[in-house]
Prior knowledge:
Number of helices: 9
Low-confidence stretches: 1-35
Distance between the termini: 29 Å
Amino acid sequence: MARSSSRLLTLTAVVVLVTAVGCTPTPGRSPGTSTGPDSTACTKAGLRTRTPGTLTIATGEPAHEPWFRQNKPENGEGFESAVAYAVATQLGYASTEVTWTRVKPDAAVAPGPKSFDLAIGQFSLTEERKQAVDLSAPYYLVRQAVIARKSSKIAGRKALAELTDAKLGALGNSTSHQAITELIKPGPKPQAYRDNDEAMAALRSGQIDGLVVDLPTAFRITSAKTTDVAIVGQLPQVGAPETFGLLLDKDSPLSGCVNEAISKLREAGTLTQLEQQWLGRSAGATELG
């Protein structure tokens, strides 16, 4: 899915976005009369899904790791598969009442009727997309990560303090560059690059010891079996992160209830737990403390 770690938003803007999306009123209810859906409507019996009693969830083909495992979203393994089932459970659906379908990303975000109730697949929350589809409250705030050649001196390091002597780089004017200057604070001046190709060329040639990119990009770069680059670790949250949300048809009758489900999962710590489980050590992205 499209993402842009080079776009640096203000933290205030993200707070407003999360608040606004999370408080979407139930369709048919006058705005301002309620900050959320009627709880009696957010049950399996009250939800208007494509197939009564069944929740149809879409994702891409293939479904990549660590978001999914073995290209089988129905197995409940991988971060986004686990999140989807957690939302389904919150809405009252058993795992046997969830069915999966595949859809191309461009088709998912395009205007028009959908072949699914909701879709998951690293959909960034953007104002442009919200003109064509409904996007839920965020289930994931994108983290930054350090990647390096497997032969680099920083490969295998476990703490931020162990990176202060490293020569690091990132896209200029990005959250990734901000993470270097505000979190790692290395002695050598961080390098800023115009695009990912230039940054990766500098990494592979040894001009820098490590490159900071958003975690989804880090997974994509290091997923190829032939790559000589590995994830050193992920960084604490910084700046105004990009956010991922579930995608629904425009003005879907499910949107308010899905937002409520995500809010409850976040309050319960479930989303954090799933993130740590599937996007942390098991995915080779231990947090650098």
